[in-house]
Amino acid sequence: MSNALVDMFRMQDIRKKVLITFGLLIVTRIGTFIPIPGINPTAVLNYFEAYSNSFTEYLNFFSGGAFNNYSLFMLGVMPYISTQIIIQLLMLVIPSLKKLSQDPQGAKKIQQYTRYGTIVVCILQSLATTVYARSIPGALTMSPVAFTLVAIVSVTAGSMLLVWIGEKITQFGVGNGISLLIFAGIIARIPSATVTMVESIKAGTLNPFALVLVVIMFILVVALVVYEEKGQRKIPVHYAKRVVGRKMYGSQSSFIPFKINPSGVIPVIFASALLSFPLQIAYNSQIGWLQSVANFLDPQGAPYLIIYTLLIVAFAFFYTQVSLNPVEMAKNIRDNGGSIPGVRNEKLEEYLTKVLNRIVLPGSLFLAFIALIPTLIQMFFDFPREIAMLFGGTSLIIMVGVDLETMRQLDSLMKMHHHDGFVDVKKRKVKKI
């Protein structure tokens, strides 16, 4: 592992990608501490320390601590993810939009539409946060009207800057930029959660025995998540002999690797983003029915947990069908003269769809179970909310999933230079001295 790390920094192109990624992530962490113009950060922090609840902790969790600071990045990248979900759903309803996305130039237009939609979502959510700020005593240092205008522009610009940074990490760095931004926000909160945990033990509000049990459960769940991420169902494919020009190619055998969890952390992120959008608009609203919506979608309540679980399962099926289209896969197999043993060619789509559904269902249920762990920990062990959200659930899935995906990308980059990677490290020959 240490040798692989040294080799990684010896190669100029990989070193450049890693340094760009770290540099941009540092910029995003600095932005979480820059408050919106017209806000009193001391009054806001004192208010959240005294009146913290499940909703504010939920938003603070996904913004990497930026929400409680009322910083430029307080909305994080959730508006962008929410817009992506809306665009993906519109593709199912509008065939012309689906056809446009399949063209390379059309995909760029879809990306533009997503950015424009993100701006609209940011304006709506930032407007809701300004209403919330007015209810905090001593929070505003300017008139409410001026603060509303400044806050909408500042927060929208901050979220769009995060989206731009995420795209640059994907383009010039290592890993998926948007996922890494969420990953960095979760990691950055671990030190403060550790301090809270130590203080709770000293104060006697947290049982050390319960903490040991939760840590053991945490390790077991991490192992299960890693095992699930690496689990595959291999579909054998045989290709007959082909004549191309004057050359004859012999028959070949291959396989299609279907992961147990093909969509990775996407369903959890999508479900969280979709639920956070109405919560941000409805919370602390003076309108009666919006307040009822906020109370109904309390992150600690049964309705929220049920909807959250159903959304994870639904997005797992949805994203899998979009990313692994059985119709396209069957068409490619037939066009290349391939076949699956025991399956007739005209039944390939039906067979592949059936296999995918059987794989995705248990995988999505496993994701949903892990996502509910923080609430279960709080209910049975009376854990502080900040610690519970880091010891399992969404944070655990994102941390493990993003880490594995980034390591795989680094592995592939290193193997291109004929070096051992991090995941599949070969045995090195030890020279005798």
UniProtKB/TrEMBL annotation:
It is found in: Cell membrane; Membrane. Keywords: Cell membrane, Membrane, Protein transport, Translocation, Transmembrane, Transmembrane helix, Transport. It is a multi-pass membrane protein. The keyword Protein transport applies. The chain crosses the membrane at residues 18-39, 70-93, 113-133, 145-165, 177-197, 209-227, 264-283, 303-324, 359-381, 387-406. One of its GO terms (biological process) is protein targeting. InterPro entries: SecY (IPR026593), SecY/SEC61-alpha (IPR002208), SecY_CS (IPR030659), SecY_dom_sf (IPR023201). PROSITE patterns: SECY_2. Pfam families: SecY. GO terms for cellular component: plasma membrane. Belongs to the SecY/SEC61-alpha family. Component of the Sec protein translocase complex. Heterotrimer consisting of SecY, SecE and SecG subunits. The heterotrimers can form oligomers, although 1 heterotrimer is thought to be able to translocate proteins. Interacts with the ribosome. Interacts with SecDF, and other proteins may be involved. Interacts with SecA. The central subunit of the protein translocation channel SecYEG. Consists of two halves formed by TMs 1-5 and 6-10. These two domains form a lateral gate at the front which open onto the bilayer between TMs 2 and 7, and are clamped together by SecE at the back. The channel is closed by both a pore ring composed of hydrophobic SecY resides and a short helix (helix 2A) on the extracellular side of the membrane which forms a plug. The plug probably moves laterally to allow the channel to open. The ring and the pore may move independently. This is Protein translocase subunit SecY. It comes from Candidatus Ornithospirochaeta avicola. The gene is secY.
